[in-house]
Amino acid sequence: MPTRNSQRRTAATYPRIRIIVALLLSLVLILSLFPPLELIDYLYWAFSLGFNVAPEVFIMFSDLLLLLAGFLLAYSLREILLTRLWMSNIRKVFRKMNTQGIPSLIAASAIIVYWHVPIVLDSALLNFPLHVIMHFSLVVAGGLIFLGASLLTDRTRKIVAILGCKAMGIFGVFLLVTSGSGYNRFYSVYPLNQQAQFGLSMMVMMFVFEGFLVPYWLYQYFSHESRKIVC
Q: How far is residue 149's CA from residue 65's CA, in Å, rounded to a whole number?
């Protein structure tokens, strides 16, 4: 039979492992997605040999992975720094400035939208220093999403997630519709057929995210309700 002390040690070990895994995964993503590695370019090259895949599709996945890297990095650093006594005053100031997480989420949304404005994205794809700044900014945006979401209520967090999915889907519909004949290219560096692939992939990603999130939330809800009935 495990003793009480061994149970406590085991319970304390799991959060540490989770923090270490999150930190390592975020660093691996950052190193692999930043120049000079940018492994997403090799994936595009491999897929383009047999499939006509638009580069915007891989840019979308690269952006999502950079946001995930920032999210995991912010989580792991917060958990590590929470053990430091001097962080208590910083946390109080941060909570006052970041009321209910709204400023962080607005700042993250502004960063994401800014880098996908056509003239800005075109410049970032053609200018190497600007391309690096874009990647760094998206990592920061991912961290801001975590800092903002951590202060939201559970219900508000779900609403924000659904709104983010819907925004991606609506933009995908816009790109798909405007890729028809009679429209000018939205992103000047890519032809209309690649723009259509980009829009379609964003719509598919919206359905994938929602198809995962909604059943998971329903499972959480009914599991909670069943525990309440048992109790």
A: 18
Domain co-membership, 110 together with 188:
no
Residues 1 and 101 in one domain: yes
Prediction pTM value: 0.83
For the stretch 12-69, pLDDT in tens is 566 788 999 999 999 999 988 887 777 777 776 676 666 667 777 788 888 999 999 9
How many domains does the chain fold into?
Answer: 2
- On whether both 85 and 132 belong to a single domain, the answer is yes
Q: pLDDT, tens digit, for every residue of 87-131?
A: 667 777 777 888 888 999 999 999 999 998 888 988 888 898 998
Q: Are residues 148 and 178 in the same domain?
A: no
Q: For the range 197-201, what are the long-range contacts, defined as Cβ-Cβ under 8 Å and sequence gap of 24 or more?
A: 197/53, 197/54, 197/56, 197/57, 198/54, 198/56, 198/57, 198/59, 198/60, 198/172, 199/171, 199/172, 199/173, 199/174, 199/175, 200/172, 200/176, 201/54, 201/56, 201/57, 201/60, 201/172
